[in-house]
Amino acid sequence: MDSFHKLADLFREFPGIGPRQAKRFVYFLLARDSTFLSELVRRIGTLQSDIAECGSCRRFFQKRGSPLCAACADPNRSDAELIVVAKDTDLDAIEKSGSFSGRYFVLGGTIPLLEKKSSQKIRSKELIQLTEKKAKAGTLHEIILALSANPDGEHTADELRKMLSPIAKQYSLTIATLGRGLSTGSELEYADSETIRSALRNRSK
Ligand SMILES: [Zn+2]
């Protein structure tokens, strides 16, 4: 395979990118000058050295000499509530809404309703470990499953509820899901702040 198609194949691995868009990206790069290309290569090269995964919530953050991101290291945030989201962009949307001051956990994807090819690794084991640790410490009271209101999101919430229910029972934790302020089919990351605030307020337990 030639260089053009090798690169196009890599772009096809990006979320939501089809073969035609992948080729358009390569043509776009071919049309740019060498300064842009060098900067792009350099930025990609420094991603792994500059960005770390938080040791607690698993979100990506700019390294700053601590294994924890700012939200997990913040002593003013409540340990009583833990929100579980599918991806970093969902966490960003909830943070932006300013309606939550507890802790987070990023799953790293959803559990697909239909068994389809998925390169995503869901951190369900890590979630159970973290929940158990926080529950044992006696600080955690509620787990809020904040998944998108689409079939994969709802399926993921159902599966997580099943996985977490033994710990929830043992430690008397509440498992909640977001209220229907979030309209059916909507992706959490695109929801506006008011919708997120209302979905959190109206969460069902
Ligand atoms: Zn964190």
Supply the key terms.
single chain; Helicase, Ruva Protein, domain 3; 6 strands; two-stranded antiparallel ribbon; Dna Topoisomerase Vi A Subunit, Chain: A, domain 2; 205 residues; binds zinc ion; globular; 2 domains; alpha/beta; four-stranded parallel β-sheet
Biggest sheet, open or closed, and with what strands and sense?
A: 4 strands, parallel
With strands numbered from the N-terminus, the spatial order across the biggest sheet is: 4-3-5-6
Radius of gyration: 19 Å
**Beta-strand percentage?**
5-15%
CATH class of the largest domain: Alpha Beta
CATH fold type of the largest domain:
Dna Topoisomerase Vi A Subunit, Chain: A, domain 2
Give me the secondary-structure topology.
Blueprint: H1 3-11, H2 19-31, H3 34-50, E1 51-53, E2 60-62, H4 70-73, E3 81-85, H5 88-97, E4 103-106, H6 124-136, E5 142-145, H7 151-171, E6 174-177, H8 193-201
Parallel strand pairs: 3-4, 3-5, 5-6
Antiparallel strand pairs: 1-2
Helix pairs in contact: 1-2, 5-8, 6-7
Bound molecules: zinc ion.
Residues 54, 56-57, 59, 68-69, 71-72 line the site of zinc ion (ZN).
Fold and architecture overview:
- The protein is an alpha/beta fold.
- The protein folds into two domains: 50 residues, Helicase, Ruva Protein, domain 3; 130 residues, Dna Topoisomerase Vi A Subunit, Chain: A, domain 2 (3-Layer(aba) Sandwich), CATH 3.40.1360.10.
- It is 47% helix and 11% strand.
- The protein contains eight helices and six strands.
- Strands 4-3-5-6 form a four-stranded parallel sheet. The protein has a two-stranded antiparallel ribbon with strand order 1-2.
- Helix 7 links the parallel strand 5 and strand 6.
- Helix 1 packs across helix 2, helix 5 crosses helix 8 and helix 6 runs parallel beside helix 7.
- The chain is globular.
- The structure holds zinc ion.
